[in-house]
Amino acid sequence: MSLRPYSLVLIGVALLGPFTHLWAWGAVGHQTVAYIAEDHLNPLSKAAVKEILGPNEDLASVSTWADSIVQTRKETAPWHYIDLNVRQDQNEFDEPDFCSHHDCVVDQIGLDLEVLTQPFASRREKQVALEFLVHFVGDLHQPLHCADDKDRGGNEKWFRFYPRGESGRFVWMNLHSLWDDLIEEKTKEDPRVLATQLERDINPRDSKEWMKGSATDWAYESFQVAKYKIYSELPDGPLPEKNRWGRDLPDDYYSGEMRNIVDRQLEKAGMRLAFLLNGLFDK
């Protein structure tokens, strides 16, 4: 598809403005999720995916397409997230209140799955649905895409971040961007290599447990990660750039705890994407 190349995705980042809330994981994260999923597809599912996408594409190559079209299809912007308030008690039954007109990531995953099961849907319709699905399952597992603190999913919470191995130097980053880049200033990891590394840490017991539930359950799980792990140590509401809060990010952003959460969320997303696709096609 003409808008798929990563260079155009980068151009889109510069132009998005108010749509920055929707970015999740960045290209490295989304491609990592896609590679994990591809590695766990059954033969029938692999064949079905190849038939839908065509010979020159795979899950990783289409995983960022949904971000690249937001400028031209503005109605898709809300499809990437669901804003559950981290300062309130929420549960799965509250999610429909935050998803009017099916315009959130949870309902869009359901709609995409529905298209892929329709026997009379065209190949083009199924291709678009599959490309959205690959991306949205990744989005669903970025905790800040299932949570909000009146800060546009962390886009309006700014901190000083001290890159590893660079003593004394810091950069101003907002919370959402920090998670998009896997708790780095700008991730330079190879997604294929990262996927392989993460797969070594997935044990069968965890994998079996992750296969339970639905997008609604997984969104609530991500919300809980945001509420109890990410936001619990942070002040309420927006924090302007170069804030005068008087503190930097909590220590666990440098101890590795938050990166461990990132890795586990990527693992879950990849395995659950494979679970969904195998359930559709391996019959």
3D structure, described in words:
Residues 1-18 have low confidence and may be disordered. With 283 residues, the protein is mainly α. The two termini are 29 Å apart. It has 13 helices and two strands, in the order αααααααββαααααα. The chain has a two-stranded antiparallel sheet.
Structural class: mainly alpha
Question: What is the CATH class?
Answer: Mainly Alpha
Task: Indicate the proportion of strand residues.
Answer: under 5%
Number of domains: 1
Task: Summarize the model shown.
50% of the residues lie in helices and 3% in strands.
Supply the key terms.
283 residues; mainly alpha; P1 Nuclease; two-stranded antiparallel sheet; 13 helices; 50% helix; 3% strand; disordered N terminus
Please give the structural blueprint.
Layout: H1 6-15, H2 26-39, H3 43-53, H4 59-62, H5 65-68, H6 105-117, H7 123-140, E1 158-161, E2 171-174, H8 175-180, H9 191-199, H10 204-210, H11 215-230, H12 252-255, H13 257-281
Antiparallel strand pairs: 1-2
Helix pairs in contact: 2-7, 2-9, 2-13, 3-13, 6-7, 7-13
